[in-house]
Design brief:
Organism: Bacillus coahuilensis p1.1.43
Family: Belongs to the UPF0749 family.
Structural class: alpha+beta
Transmembrane segments: 12-32
Largest sheet: 5 strands, antiparallel
Strand order of the largest sheet: 3-2-7-1-8
Helix content: 55-70%
Coiled coil: 50-91
CATH architecture of the domain at 112-236: 2-Layer Sandwich
Distance between the termini: 161 Å
Radius of gyration: 54 Å
Keywords: Coiled coil, Membrane, Transmembrane, Transmembrane helix
Number of helices: 5
CATH class of the domain at 112-236: Alpha Beta
C-alpha cells in the first residue's frame, strides 16, 4: 500500500510539473501573440508615414526641378534683354554724342577745354610790289585755317572772340574782315577748342595750311592753350 501511495504521489507531482510547464508555455504563447498583434499595426503605421514622407520628398524634388527650369528660362530671357538693352544704350549714347557735337558745331552751347590759337597778320609791305593785297590777310586764308581745324577735330572755333556757327559768314573788306556782320581788323586770332597736340600737328604739317599761308607773305604763328572758354552764340547776342 505504501508503494502504491508513493507512486500515486509521484504521478501527481509529475502531472503538476507538466501542467505548470504547459501553463507557462500557453501563457508565453499568448503574450507573444498579443505583442505581435500590437507591434504589427505600429510597424504598418510607421511604414505608411515613411512612405508618405518619401512621396513628399519626391514631389518636392520634382517641384524644385520645375522651378530650376523656370529660373534658367528667366535667366536666358534676362540675358537677351540685357544684350538688347546694351545695343540700344550704344545707339542712344551715339545719338546723344552726335547731338552734342552738332549743338557745339551750331554754337548753341558753351564749350571749354584745351586748344590752340592761330594768329594771322598782314605781311610787311614791300614798295617794289605793285599790289598791296599780296600782303594782306584775306578770307580764304581764314577759311583754310578754320576748315583744317574742323577736320582735325575742333569742337568750337572763334575769330577774335566771335564764336563761329554753322550759319556764320566771313567777308573780306580791304584790311578788315567781317564776321557775321561784325568787323575785325588785323591781326586775326583764330581760336579752336580740341586736342591741342592734334590741332597743332594738323596745322603744321609739311605742305599744309601753314606753308600755304606763309607762301602768301602772311605772318603766321600758332600757340597751344591749356584751357579756354567759348560762349554759345545765344549768349553773345
Amino acid at each position: 500500500m505504501k508503494i502504491i501511495k508513493k507512486r500515486a504521489r509521484g504521478s501527481y507531482i509529475f502531472l503538476s510539473l507538466v501542467f505548470l510547464v504547459l501553463g507557462f508555455i500557453l501563457s508565453f504563447s499568448y503574450n507573444l501573440t498579443n505583442q505581435q498583434k500590437i507591434s504589427e499595426p505600429t510597424s504598418s503605421l510607421q511604414f505608411k508615414e515613411e512612405d508618405s514622407l518619401r512621396n513628399q520628398i519626391n514631389d518636392q524634388k520634382e517641384s524644385n526641378l520645375e522651378l530650376q527650369e523656370k529660373l534658367y528660362a528667366l535667366q536666358n530671357e534676362l540675358k537677351d534683354y540685357e544684350t538688347e538693352l546694351s545695343k540700344k544704350e550704344d545707339v542712344y549714347f551715339n545719338l546723344v554724342e552726335d547731338v552734342n557735337k552738332y549743338r557745339m558745331f551750331l554754337g548753341e552751347v558753351d564749350v571749354k577745354g584745351p586748344g590752340v590759337t592761330v594768329r594771322l597778320e598782314d605781311g610787311a609791305y614791300d614798295p617794289k610790289e605793285d599790289n598791296v593785297n599780296n600782303y594782306l590777310v584775306h578770307e580764304h586764308h581764314v577759311f583754310k585755317v578754320i576748315n583744317e581745324l574742323y577736320i582735325a577735330g575742333a569742337t568750337a572755333i572763334s575769330i577774335n572772340g566771335k564764336r563761329i556757327s554753322a550759319d556764320s559768314y566771313i567777308v573780306c573788306n580791304g584790311p578788315v574782315i567781317t564776321v557775321d556782320g561784325e568787323q575785325f581788323p588785323a591781326p586775326f586770332v583764330i581760336s579752336a577748342i580740341g586736342d591741342s597736340e592734334v590741332l597743332e600737328s594738323a596745322i603744321n604739317i609739311t605742305g599744309g595750311v601753314k606753308d600755304q599761308i606763309v607762301n602768301d607773305n602772311i605772318i603766321f604763328s600758332i600757340e597751344k592753350i591749356n584751357q579756354m572758354v567759348m560762349e554759345s552764340v545765344i549768349n553773345e547776342i
